Every structure is written in C-alpha cells, then in structure tokens.
Amino acid sequence: MPKKKASKERVLSGVHFMLGNYATVEGAISAGCNYFAGYPITPANEISERMSQRLPQVGGKFVQGEDELCSVFSLAGAALAGGKVMTATASAGYNYMQEGLGYCYAIEAPMVIVDVQRTRGDNFASQADVYQMRYGASGDYEAIVVCPSSVQELYDYTIWAFNLAEEYRNPVIVMSETTIALMRERLDIPTADKIELYDRRYTKKTPDEYHPFEALANQCPEAAPIGEGYHTIYSLNPHDEYGNIDWDPIVFDNLYKRVTGKITENADKICRTESYMMDDADYAIVTYGSEFRPSIDAVETARKEGIKLGVLKLCNVWPVPENAICEVAGNVKKIFSVEMNLGKYVREIERASKNKCEVVSVTKNRGFVHTTDEIMTEIRKGVL
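User: That's the sequence. What structure does it adopt?
Assistant: Structure tokens below.
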C-alpha cells in the first residue's frame, strides 16, 4: 500500500482548544480529504460549516447536497475519480444514505461517513445506531466502523478512517456522538511529518489489460483513474472481474466472498483495542465511544472499594475485535458491557466471549452517557 506523509499546508500543527466536530474536519483535511458533500442536520452541522471554509483553502471542493442520498452518491463519483471524500450526518440523516451506501460497498468506493449519533428527533447523545452502521445497507458487505471517545480521537480516528478506506477500498464509518461532537477539549495536532497516510493502489496496466474488479482472494482490486481510457461499469448488480453485469451464481458468489473477505480475513490487522488496569482484573468493562469516559472513572472507584476492575476499550466495533474480547473473557469472572442504547453490541460481546464468562448488559438510552455511580451500581450488583 503506497504511503506518504501529510501535506504541511493541510495540518494545523499545535495545541488547540477545539470543538469535536471541528476536530473531525481537521482530521479529514490532514488525511488529504479534497471533496465533501453533505446536507444540514444537527448535531453534525459544524462539520459542514467548517468544511465549507477549510476545503477551499487547501484546493478542495465543498458541495451542499440537496439531500443525504445526493450527498453519498456524489461521494461515489468523486471517489472513483480519485478523490479522498467524506460526508457527515446524524442518525436520521444516516437512514437516508443506506441505498447509496449499499452501492458504494458493491463498487468498492473508498469514502468516510461521519455519523454523529443522536436520540430520535432530539439533539441528545445515543449509541443506538451501532447495528445500523453494520447492517443498514442492502446486500452482503462488511462494514468498518471506528468509535472515538474524545475530541483528540475524533481527529486521530478520522485520519485512521481515511487510511482504512484507501487500503481496503471500502466505506468507513466514524461513529461520533453528540456528547463528543459538541464538546470542546484540548487537541494536540502533530506536525505533518508525524502523520502517515495511505493511498489506494493504482493499476500500472493499460486500459486493454486492466480488469477493474480483478483481485486476489480477500484483497481489493487496483484502482484506475476515470477519464483516462479505463472504461468501467460501476454497478450495484452482480458483476464479473471486467465490470460486466453478469448474473451467474458462481460469479456472484466469488464477488461477494471477496468483497466481504477483504475485511473479515484482515480483521486482526484492522481491529484496535486498548486495555486499562486489566493485568490483574477479576472483572472487566467492555465499552466503546464516549461510554469509555465514565467507565474509567468506575474503575478508579471500584479499585478503591477493593474490586479489581479493568476496561477493554474498543477502538472499532466493526469488524468485531473478537480475539481481544475472547482473551478478556478467559481471564475474568464477569464482563460488563456498557453502552448507550437498550443493549445491542452486548450480543457481539457475548458471542465473542464463547461462554468463557458471564456477560452483563449495562444499558442506558436517556440522552446522556452513564454516570460513574450508575455503572458502579451495576458493578456492585454483579460482584457482591
């Protein structure tokens, strides 16, 4: 995979006190984003606002789409033309993007979609979209979803998302939340030479030699620039390695096994987790996104009470970091799954734990993250 350093002109190196949505924009600009299309929706509007200012400064293009579907389909065209592209929306708007996302997964168009989750109809925090981010679009595909927990990580993980999109030629979702998107915190932006970027692989074959969907098993095909003689049909329909629409069960099976396999078979490379106080832990919290923040406080409180509690933080939720979860399950008496919904991702944690320990669901969907006391109430119930 071709690698390079970030462009100095695009990186606002230094220490900032920045809104989370603005940090997302700066991460995208640092990563080389040169096209953004979006439609207004709270609590993601600050992303569009800042993008409209920043992208022209670095030679990029900003488009306000007529709606969310227009925005995501325009991303597909810009991505295939060679752009590093992004859109941003919130939960209700993410619903409208699913038809376009299904298309983008099928044609293997690299892009980044930021979903600033909110409660239904109101501007309060939630993690209720976690399953939609994986299963919302039609057809067989695999999603990559990264889940920052701070303003700093909104910047860092957005760069990571662009790199994953380029490496695997796949849409990548940044699971943001109202909590962190509208929060101001310290943000440390490194110098450009410290930021490593990935670019998709472009073919060296001539148009006559090039097969747009030809790739080794569990890998993505090389890209070709639009407008330079590489004539390709980019269709949602089953297509062969030439891009021709071809309903043949074997062709269909091979295509989607490769489209999904490029993610599933590289899951260990994609997945990241972080462990806190897990070396001697008897109990573990497994969590993601902004729920990590009160979970850390709960660990400190529990330790003072003599409860050996630790945290496994999931930096991405899709693909599932199965090996890390399974390892934790084999080392503790009980896992507490803390999330801001009615209990969704806990099913994945239970599955990955392989019955090695009990998994307790700690849920809340009232517009705010758990408090430390709320988590500790469940910990004490499960421990004492």
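The chain has 14 helices and 16 strands.
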